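User: Please predict the structure of the protein below. I'd like the answer in structure-token form so I can feed it into my own downstream comparison script.

Assistant: Understood. Taking the following sequence of 579 residues as input:
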Amino acid sequence: MFHIDEAEVRHIRENADIVEIIKSYIPLTQKGKNYFGVCPFHDDHSPSMSVSKEKGIYKCFSCGATGNVFKFVSDYENVSFGESVKIVAEKMGLTLKSTIEIKKETKNKEEYQVMELASIFYQNNLMTEKGTKALEYLNQRGLDETMIKDFQIGLALDKNSLYTFLSKKKWSEKRMVDLGLVSQNGLSYNDIFVNRIMFPIHNLNGQVVGFTGRIYLENSSPPKYMNSKETIIFKKGNILFNYHRAKEFVRAKKELIITEGNMDAIRMYSCGFKNTIALMGTSMTNNQIEEIKKLRVPIILMLDNDDAGNIATFQNGTLLEKENVTVKVVRLSKEKDPDEYLLANGPEKMAENIKNAISFLEFKLMYYKQNKNLNDSEDLTTYIKEVLKSLQNETDIIKKEVAIKKLSEDVGISLEILKQELSSENAKTPIIKQEEEKAPKKITRNQIAINHVLYYMMNDKKYIVMYKNKLGFLEDATMRGIANEIMAYYEIHKTICYADFLSYVETSKLKNEIYEIIESIKEESLDENSMEEYLNIIKKTRKEKEIQKLKIEQKNEPDPNKKLEIGCRIQELKKEVEK
């Protein structure tokens, strides 16, 4: 949420040069009235984004991204609408009169309050006399005071201290149990985390949603690490550890480093690699991938240096590549993970590894080659076929060419033979025939009128009133949906402008239709007489359709009296049409 004057937002948008703002992010070339550039919202290799200076909107003809200047900045920078207004104003050299206030999510407010209280309680424990041994352990592991403070590291004590503390704060036992802080055994309640160093887990907005507890005493019972159970606010598949801290550094560094464990991310961050996050497990979920995609930067996978980490690198890299994310890989030598590597070798050596990260293609060639003897004809054949199979669905011609060339050099087989084999493999794969391009649909007079009515409604509230009073609805479901969205937008904002409205609409199908309507209108001025004419055309077409329907009904009606009634209704409608 943000609190900013609507008039000020409108003033900024109306005076912002959308071409110049977008040019500050991507190159644009003028072709006719519009400007074109490579779309930053998908893996685009030819200019498919059109920007209209005149209309103040942009549209990608490949992925469908559409909106006004604020929408572009919001999506490109991965920031809220309020923040995008501020960025655009700054680029224009303007100072906002209003204050933007970002409000935290109010849903599950009490659950977040309890988790924040628990985190503060654990942090305070670490700073007491009872936390001395835990502090010594952390210092031995190379975690200094700054790291402990930055990551809000705490301590769970040996008794039911958290349960007692939260009870005194009047929080119910049920809520404590539901949040995975306390367990119930009959009538007694016990802390889940006991004698463990506590690492809070934050959601993407920076709110505490869970904990990882690590044993530190020699006589402690396993497991070494224990995570909070999943709750109403903690879904492991939605979490990326350290994301809320790392995202601003990701934008500056233009890349994101992904590690496997929380401690890896903490160590990387503290050693200056602040654009680092960690997975909550080894396999990425769809939700995690969607969040990563929003950052629109290359990914460096730096997972554990073991067989499981190798497999996870291949699986996660494949998932990311399918979503058109550029992937690089760092496989650390000797030490098990980034945490141990940094302790043993220091930040400079780590920086060298990151600088020399290999492409995911190179990693795949290494991955397919592992555990194979390329001097053995069967292993060699299997290796070649695995690589070629992975290239079957590769749409990037250059990537494919590079991969085949590398494979040719690697196995000593000519490019021609490998390409021939790849073509043969592709021929075996069923190809779904694309639907033949249809001839452009001839637009009817009625559709032209509907487009104009909707365009007028998107530009001035008085035309919304005319539509409501003189027409009321449109027969076509999509067009009716647009009209309803326009009216809903006006009810909320008490103002209307197509550039703002286009960014407001969420359904991609409606977005595309609205863009087509805006692009189809050539005239500059609007007037009520023209609106009246367009409304009359729509009403006339509606009556003509009704006449045709009644004629069929009359033809199939056996009752002479009813036939006569229908005939009279047809005559009435014909007179109305003639008027």
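That's the full token string. The domain at 6-91 is CATH 3.90.580.10 (DNA Primase; Chain A).
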